[in-house]
Write the structure tokens for this entry.
Amino acid sequence: MRRLKFKGRTHPVLYVIGKNLMKKKITLSVLILLATLACAATPKQKTEKRLQSAAEVLQEIMNVPDKGIPMEVVEHAKCIAVIPHEIKAGLIVGVKHGKGVATCRTPNGWSAPAFFSITGGSWGLQIGVAGVDNVLMIMNQKGMDRLLSNKFQIGAEASAAAGPVGRHAAAGTDWKMDTEILSYSRSKGVFAGVTLDGAWVSPDEAAMLAFYGENTTHKDVLSGKVPPPPSARVFLAAVKSAEEQAKKES
């Protein structure tokens, strides 16, 4: 097709159109490059992102007035586990499979974080769907021992219940009894206790390897035998803040 000339030069209108098209192509190329770089995150970076997301989820839940996890539950929890939803390229992923991070109390404070995965069960349809975030409060030594084990099934091997909701646990509730795990879910700003029966919890070996290197088990980490790396500070700071808030208000 012959180019239109305007006094020996490219027509001004065509020049502007071509210039705008070039700008759009450059912008699109930049967006594609950024998306490619985001997808190319290293396994270590992915674990750090999980810690950051878990910290944000816990902070947001604790800051909800009269609708979050009761202060008494936070204060007495042996371990705290958070399963943030995961979004890639604008799409929510992780149906029937969630990836979380946990920390347990030790004589020297909260342990370094351990990475785990949770799959299946009646709860599986909620994991990672529609921006659902989940929090597990492990309430006693039996529950902590389950978390330290290689793999366990909630409901069959570990007792669990939907956790009470509110700034304070209502008098007469049995959350202090033998229930090992209290579970919570937040979806689109709505926070509530949920049941977990049938879900399997196991260490996320790939994430553990990426974050700590070889020869580091989740049991050693949660038992306090492994010092928290600097990149774990954001998550542990959120846990400590929740604990301090609970002590002040309980």
About this structure: Confidence is low (pLDDT under 50) at residues 1-6, 87-95, 123-129. Residues 12-39 form the longest helix (28 residues). The two ends are 78 Å apart (CA to CA). The chain has two domains: 5-37, 43-249.
